Amino acid sequence: GDSVTQMEGPVTLSEEAFLTINCTYTATGYPSLFWYVQYPGEGLQLLLKATKADDKGSNKGFEATYRKETTSFHLEKGSVQVSDSAVYFCALSGGGADGLTFGKGTHLIIQP
Amino acid sequence: DGGITQSPKYLFRKEGQNVTLSCEQNLNHDAMYWYRQDPGQGLRLIYYSQIVNDFQKGDIAEGYSVSREKKESFPLTVTSAQKNPTAFYLCASSELAGVTDTQYFGPGTRLTVL
């Protein structure tokens, strides 16, 4: 079946550091890929998505490129802020009725 | 504002009681989902529904039940058969399952068994 693997956390960085959160997937066919963000005590918010190979999703300074050859969708940001502290989830959709398959989440902590 | 609402935000249950979590959406979405979130385990799918009066079991449906009598509503009942119900519960919806894929989430309900 489909699966998503993302780096374990917590990831702790200083403000203005460069961020990479790795995400790799296993799926049949051509899935859509997503990054969601969850702030403490809240639901998930869509951060960005990509629906086909070589697509780049971007939002709020975050970027991720759909790499089919390496089955990856790594999240990057050039300069993180304290307000970026949250849990980040990578997810995929194979187009089935049961929706998304999620990774376990990566807790990001940004220190001032 | 369009969105998904869940209530209550916090819920406490005694052992042996059934409780119902509310989920309402005004996005006119066809598909709705319930997830359970436990620390370090990501999200696990409980039930999903593509259309009114139809729903399917997800990966961890045992001890839970749902109904879908209206397009905008998808309540989840946690029954006494669920052995470890303490968790954060998230409801989501999408335009049409398997087509646009993007799911939109409510703010969640934290259930604690006393």
In whole angstroms, the N-to-C terminal distance of chain B is 35 Å
Radius of gyration of chain A: 13 Å
Question: Quick one: biggest sheet of chain B?
Answer: 7 strands, mixed
Q: What sequence of helices (H) and strands (E) makes up the elements of chain A?
A: EEEEEEEEEEEE
Uncertain residue ranges of chain A: none
Structural class of chain B: mainly beta
DSSP, total strands of chain A = 12
Low-confidence spans of chain B:
none
Description of the molecule:
- Chain A is an all-beta fold and 112 residues long.
- Helices cover 0% and strands 51% of the residues of chain A.
- In chain A, strands 2, 5, 6, 10, 11 and 12 form a six-stranded mixed sheet that branches. In chain A, strands 3-9-8-7 form a four-stranded antiparallel sheet, with no helix packed on it.
- In chain A, β7 and β8 (62-65) form a beta hairpin.
- Chain A is globular and about 45 Å long.
- Chain B has no helices and eleven strands.
- The model of chain B has no long low-confidence stretch (mean pLDDT 91).
- Chain B is mainly β.
- In chain B, β4 (31-37) and β5 (43-51) form a beta hairpin.
- At the A-B interface, β5 and β6 of A face β5, β9 and β10 of B.
